[in-house]
Amino acid sequence: MLSGSPLAAGAARRFVRAGIAEWTRLALPGADSLGENLVQDTLVVVSELVTNAVVHAGTDVELFCRLEPAAGRSAGAPAGIVVEVSDHHPARAVRDEGAHRPYAVGRPYGGDERPYGGAEYGRGLRLVSALSDTWGITYRTGVKTVWARLPADRALPAEEGAEGCDEGRPEDGHDPAEVPAPWPGRTVERDHGWLNHGALSFLAEASDLLAGQLDEDLVAALTGQLIVPRLADWCAVWLEDEGMGWRGTEGISVTGPRLARVWHVSENRIEQLRRALEKDPPRLPDSVRSRAVPVPWPADALSERDAIGAAFAYRLIAGGRPLGTLVIGRAGIPRFPDEVTGLVEDLSRRVALAIGAARQYARQATISRVLQRGLLPGAVAEIPGMHSALVYEPCDQGGPSGDFYDLFPAGDGRWCFALGDVQGKGPEAAVLIGLARPWLRLLAREGYQVGEVLDRLNQLLLDDATEAADAAARALVKAGGTGLGADDGPQNRFLSLLYGELVPFRDGVRCTLASAGHPLPLLLGPDGGVGTAAEPQTLLGVIEDSAYTSQSFALHPGDTLLCVTDGVTERRSGPDMFDDEDGLTTALAGCAGLSAELIAERIRRLVHEYGEGPPEDDLALLVLQAE
User: Which of 26, 82, 138, 361 is the most buried (most CB within 10 A)?
Assistant: First the structure.
């Protein structure tokens, strides 16, 4: 199962590569005779079918690939490879991607000369038809499957450039310069072998490269490297900014599209070309979708040798929204070959999808950062007679963490602190933190004792989970369902929490705390002795009518209280965890005599050094030390 995202096609290709390698390793009948051309054709077909499903159906995609045995052939000879791509939107027909293509190319893969994008199938299924000996669409309840069978005995057409067109094909993640391209000294116009077959691999690998980028400006930069000098002498990418405007090279505020990237085979002409293009950006009619449209040649920005040439513009559209414009240019020719304009059109669609995905990620990341700031205190309160230090490291910088903390004045000479870990991450975690932290502050300031605060917070979580389950059940019944799923019940909204109250007095600080399903806090004395400072109790939001109790003790000068989340205690190194055999106790004992800040930093460093890679869970720890 592949998620319905721009990354699906790349994941599908990696899956198929791995599957074919596994067939060979297991010595399945016929696997050793699979040619490289068949493998590459299979990757192209899979890429087109998965992209088609993601773009037009918009659902998760199921991919199935099998080696079909030969019937009536010599033993060990495979009949071919069968691929099936299924989506869950059978009512969404495959759209015609070629309706706006009046141009043609030569044989796409050993076939007759036909329109590049015929009105019958759209380009994706045109490629499937060209590369397979049979294909079709099967409908089942709630599922549409497009399948294709690729014969094992297909060979490359004997035409110029066909031999060796697989040379230099990059693996996933290589530099853009390694994407298949015409050899030096050969023109794109005459290299039909590359345009017909190698171009398919070029598009597939370009999709992988673009889909992995989460910054729209980097997408624009990579687009320039993909096009120049393979397909054009220069190119430019304009982006429709979602903000109010931007500043051009002269420092003047500009509204409208932003020239995000200019690329030229000769780097010393880039800035001059940029200035000329900024002054006169392409203006394409709204009726133009992604087809190539001739635009004026910027002769003034180029050398006298390049005084004439051809330039085309493509609108970058994803999800029905215009995202920008791609312009390509080549000197010394009156017009681009149809093969090139068609290939760049296909590339422009992939560029638009990558820009759309990058913008969506940027929006989500911004929302997450704003949400995260709202879920955590703006500042940690200073407590008379105490020093405090905090370490907070969410493992996912792009979304709300499951850990939270708070340290705040509660009135009447009291300060309260909390360190919690909610179930899950992301929006669900944010909802739970958004409930818990404000209620903690409210209950503390109303004068409730530590155990009473946990009692009421526990009941609040149970009530909220019950209301959420009832709402989900009503929605399910309204939609024609009959009941709840396994994960919709109230047991899914729970958290572990360490909560305490601090009251300074003349010789130290009085501490009262309780732990609800949380790693127990540790108390370090000036002599290096370490002990636990609370009793284990049940998670919040799990059991009705739980009665939580608290423990009280005095923190004298030099005493240190260490509170952590399970990102510390359960930090892994292979099968072992950091707190196995009282590892955290041992680490804290070695911190005797250190300040609160140094203790926090040493524990953080030891946790990071315990495993080989970065921590896989959120990490939070709070150190409270009496003066």
Answer: 82
